[in-house]
Amino acid sequence: NAVYEVARTALQARAARPYMGGRPGPRVAREQPVDALPVYAGATGYVQHIAVDVLQSIAERLETSIDVVSLPGAFVSARSPIAYVQGARSQDAAELEAEVADAFSIERSRTFDQDPRFGIIAMSEIASRALSPAVNDPGTAIDVIGRMVMLFDIWSAVDRNQEPKFDRVRVPGLAEKDLFDDAFAPIARDGAAIPEVQIRLQKAFAILTRSRNPAVCEQAYRHSQLAMKHAEQAIQLTDDLERVRAAL
Questions:
Q1: Can you say whether the dihedral through the CA atoms of 44, 122, 10, 176 is positive or negative?
Q2: DSSP secondary structure string, 39-89?
Q3: Which own/partner contact pairs does 231-238 have at CB distance under 8 Å and 24+ positions apart?
Q4: Of the candidates 116, 97, 45, which has an alpha carbon nearest to the alpha carbon of residue 74?
Q5: Dihedral sign of CA atoms 161, 164, 167, 173 in order
């Protein structure tokens, strides 16, 4: 329950501001933009927090824009680019890079605050541990699956057309593919041979294919097919396998 609550809080916050208050940016970091100053992490670890308001203030002062390329939860090295400042003059580079980098907190571990994926991963890990032979508790995994559906209901309500609060900062959105892979891939793998878990997964995906978010529908269908492949490989009794197929 505690992990679900922190995961829900983080996901609700991101759903309210899918681009952390900024404008939408590309999800995949491309090559360095022309006339842009790369800002490097300066340390190896996880991005824990980004002060988007600070980035906005810097961009306003310089009358430019800043692209964030590493979201909270990203693992970066000292020479990983975490942002690009458009149109920065070379003579200002060192001081400006340090100022922008200070808006990023990089530490040795992940936190739930600005990192909804971390909460989803933690829940999925609870289910995987419950499905281990040493624990053998499919009921907990089934409960986690239900809570995942609740989380994706929250995510399906995201308004991506809202006016940005920080209009000079571009931030990538979370990809539904990543969220589904975090949530369901380990459970489908570790519960492959357990009909009750596979049936609950298929029922969950059936609900999510009716989501108002087309990307959630697409990923629910993809994971339904993936879970079915796991079941076909692991479930030996034909009657059990037919029960899973009937839930499709």
A1: positive
A2: EE--SSEEEEEE-HHHHHHHHHHHT--EEE-S-TT-EE-TT-EEEEEET--
A3: 231/192, 231/195, 231/198, 233/192, 234/192, 234/193, 235/192, 235/193, 235/195, 235/198, 236/193
A4: 45
A5: negative
Please tell me the distance from the alpha carbon of residue 84 to that of residue 164, in angstroms, as a whole number: 19
Tokens in use for 169? 């900062």
- Which pLDDT tens digit goes with each residue over 43-59? 999 999 999 999 999 99
Count the neighbouring beta carbons within 10 Å of the beta carbon of residue 169: 29
Distance CA(107)–CA(195), nearest Å, equals 41
The answer on pLDDT for 29 being more than 70 is: no
Tell me what pLDDT residue 93 has: 86
Pairing of strands 66-68, 169-172: parallel
Residue among 187, 178, 179 at smallest CA distance from 154: 179
pLDDT at 28: 63
Q: How many CB atoms lie within 10 A of CB 241?
A: 17
pLDDT by residue (tens digit) across 56-107? Answer: 999 999 999 999 999 999 999 999 999 999 987 665 788 999 999 999 999 9
Nearest to residue 127, comparing CAs of 137, 119, 118? 137
How is residue 145 written in tokens?
């699956």
**How many residues can be counted in the chain?**
248
